[in-house]
Amino acid sequence: MGSYGPAQVLGIYGGIVGLIYIETDGLRHDTPLLYALPPLALAAFTYKLTMNKATKLLTSISFIAIGGALYLLDRRVLPYTISLMTFSHLFYLFSFMKCMRRLWNELAIILTIYFGGIFYYCFGDLFASIPMLVTFLTIHLGIVRVSILTAGSIWFYGSKRSYARQGDLLRFVGLLTCLACSSILLLNRFGRRLQQSHYLIKLLCYLSQPLLFFANERTF
């Protein structure tokens, strides 16, 4: 794994998240730089991994991008936040997509129904008034869907490049957690107002990122 073992990485990462939780009174204070630190720490850990340079770079950039999204989350600038979340998903997708053996059709149907429902509920009557923003958010949802479908297919049918079943499962669960983050963000803005939505987004993000880190660490 490089300079640090899994227990050390989890200990340092958990310590950073715990410190942020205390310093921000339960992730409630407006301290954007602190919120960005955990994913940035994972980006630094990624550079220490003994994996292919291209995969290492793509994985690191994905963590840096999600760190930027957390930095902007409380700034109320949705297009920039979603942009960074989209780039994070895209770079992470590029890091593992070549491992897919075949498509999991049942998951594709479920995800299509889910994302169709999200789109209709949040944007059904908004396209005429804000077409560019709706198009952009639709692209984001599409990339999230492809990421989850690819990860799920690799877990269900196995990887072409490795037999790291635990890593495949961690990636799938991590990306499903990321889906929850995106759904809460969009529902809070365009659907029903949710209590403590930014708290939930941060918490789920901090849970998902180490799963994605260890998924690629175990696979590559």
Automatic annotation (TrEMBL):
<feature type="transmembrane region" description="Helical">
    <location>
        <begin position="79"/>
        <end position="96"/>
    </location>
</feature>
<feature type="transmembrane region" description="Helical">
    <location>
        <begin position="103"/>
        <end position="121"/>
    </location>
</feature>
<keyword id="KW-0472">Membrane</keyword>
<dbReference type="InterPro" id="IPR012506">
    <property type="entry name" value="TMEM86B-like"/>
</dbReference>
<keyword id="KW-1133">Transmembrane helix</keyword>
<comment type="similarity">
    <text>Belongs to the TMEM86 family.</text>
</comment>
<dbReference type="GO" id="GO:0016020">
    <property type="term" value="C:membrane"/>
</dbReference>
<feature type="transmembrane region" description="Helical">
    <location>
        <begin position="169"/>
        <end position="187"/>
    </location>
</feature>
<keyword id="KW-0812">Transmembrane</keyword>
<protein>
    <recommendedName>
        <fullName>lysoplasmalogenase</fullName>
        <ecNumber>3.3.2.2</ecNumber>
    </recommendedName>
</protein>
<feature type="transmembrane region" description="Helical">
    <location>
        <begin position="133"/>
        <end position="157"/>
    </location>
</feature>
<dbReference type="GO" id="GO:0047408">
    <property type="term" value="F:alkenylglycerophosphocholine hydrolase activity"/>
</dbReference>
<feature type="transmembrane region" description="Helical">
    <location>
        <begin position="57"/>
        <end position="73"/>
    </location>
</feature>
<dbReference type="Pfam" id="PF07947">
    <property type="entry name" value="YhhN"/>
</dbReference>
